[in-house]
Design goal:
Largest sheet: 7 strands, mixed
Mean pLDDT: 95
Oligomer: single chain
Strand content: over 45%
Number of helices: 0
Helix content: under 10%
Radius of gyration: 13 Å
Length: 122
């Protein structure tokens, strides 16, 4: 069982930056691939970024490529999402999730955090 807690969300102006963190509860975190997803009001939850267990492979949604960076610190059992050049369309609740294998689909992830709100004003 892995519990995940996101933090770092907030209100930022367009063009600004935020760094989200996702702290895990278990040392077994090291064996999981991690992903970030987001869900805007009235929309489906969508993939944002993912990283494999060692941090050597990353995937990004086209909409965030070049602006967002996913990373992890296994010693701190934490995964991060650095978000730069934020746009109003990035406004959503952001969730981190754990999977036995790096993936872009929500149904491949077994554990989810409660989410953190990111609001980008124009």
């Amino acid at each position: 069982q892995v519990q995940l807690v996101e933090s770092g969300g907030g209100l930022v102006q367009a063009g600004g930056s935020l760094r989200l963190s996702c702290a895990a509860s278990a040392r077994t975190f090291r064996s999981y691939a991690m992903g970030w997803f987001r869900q805007a009001p009235g929309k489906e939850r969508e993939f944002v970024a993912a990283i494999d267990w060692i941090g050597g492979t990353t995937y990004y949604a086209d909409s965030v490529k070049g602006r967002f960076t996913i990373s992890r610190d296994n010693a701190k059992i934490t995964v991060y999402l650095q978000m730069n050049t934020l746009k109003p369309e990035d406004t959503a609740v952001y969730y981190c999730a754990a999977s036995v294998q790096i993936a872009t689909m929500t149904d491949k992830y077994d554990y989810w955090g409660q989410g953190t709100q990111v609001t980008v004003s124009s």
